[in-house]
Design a protein that fits this description.
alpha/beta; Rossmann fold; six-stranded mixed beta sheet; 6 strands; globular; binds guanosine-5'-diphosphate; binds magnesium ion; Small_GTPase_ARF; GTP-binding; transmembrane; membrane
Length: 244
């Protein structure tokens, strides 16, 4: 009897030892790899680390970018490609800065490319020409503020070129934009109604069509800050960057 028991346990151990575990190990490795890839992909999608410099052409984005990231002072060139650099805060934190070209045909493309990695948005305005270009400025700002991808991203509207005598103040620019956004909003709404809006990536800005638009109605953090890159007066911006 004892002999028989020993024989069968020996057979069982031989069988276990003979088993080929390779498929099981491969399956486990595939599962593990899938989890790692999914984790990295999700992380890549949600890591927001860039400060985007946007705004119309000639507002001074590249000039400010070179001041902040390259220690500035140099004249700028027309950018058709984004400039990427880093800025060190007083606390020693490195921020990735991206100067996005403002040409009408390029700005939408670049904004779409960077909106998912934006930690903050600097919207630059030429305070001298803002009145003349108000429709364009309001339209672009609307695109940025209404985009679902950036609703939680803080925005600073930098009213640049305050050294010029004809520059409008940040308070005047803010109210000019509020009036103009009312009009932009109307146009966008009628455009949306004529197409299928279930896939639209933008939302309606403000309370309702019947109530005049005000920036305070937004859930998004937005502030208007005066600035003169030429005179190196951009403490409002650096304070904003320090607080990020
Ligand atoms: N007066 C004045 N001119 C500025 C200031 N900032 C930029 N500029 C000028 O505005 C022009 C456009 O600047 P740029 O950085 O190329 O604008 P971008 O197209 O937004 O990148 C350049 O000639 C700059 O020297 C400023 O604070 N004051
Ligand atoms: Mg530029």
């Amino acid at each position: 009897m004892d002999k028989m028991n020993r024989k069968s346990s020996a057979r069982a151990s031989v069988k276990l030892a003979d088993l080929d575990y390779t498929p099981v190990l491969i399956a486990l490795a595939v599962i593990l790899l899938t989890f790692v890839v999914l984790f990295l992909w999700k992380r890549k999608k949600t890591v927001r680390s860039a400060v985007l410099f946007t705004g119309l052409c000639d507002s001074g984005k590249t000039y400010l970018f070179t001041h902040l990231c390259l220690g500035g002072g140099r004249e700028t060139f027309t950018s058709i490609k984004e400039n990427v650099g880093s800025f060190k805060t007083e606390k020693g934190r490195e921020l990735r800065m991206v100067d996005v070209p403002g040409h009408e045909r390029l700005r939408g493309k670049f904004f779409d490319e960077y909106k998912n990695v934006a930690k903050a948005i600097v919207f630059m305005i030429d305070s001298v020409t803002v009145q003349k270009d108000i429709r364009d400025v309001a339209d672009f700002l609307y695109t940025i503020l209404a985009d679902k991808a950036t609703t939680k991203v803080p925005v600073v509207v930098l009213c640049n070129k305050q050294d010029e005598t004809l520059a409008k103040t940040e308070t005047a620019i803010k109210s000019m934009l509020e009036k103009e956004i009312n009009i932009v909003r109307q146009t966008r709404r009628s455009q949306l109604q004529s197409v299928d809006n279930s896939t639209a990536s933008d939302t309606f800005l403000g309370k309702s069509a019947g109530v005049d638009f005000e920036f305070e109605q937004l859930g998004q953090r937005i502030r208007f800050v005066p600035c003169s890159t030429k005179d190196e007066k951009y403490d409002g911006l650096t304070a904003f960057l320090e607080a990020l």
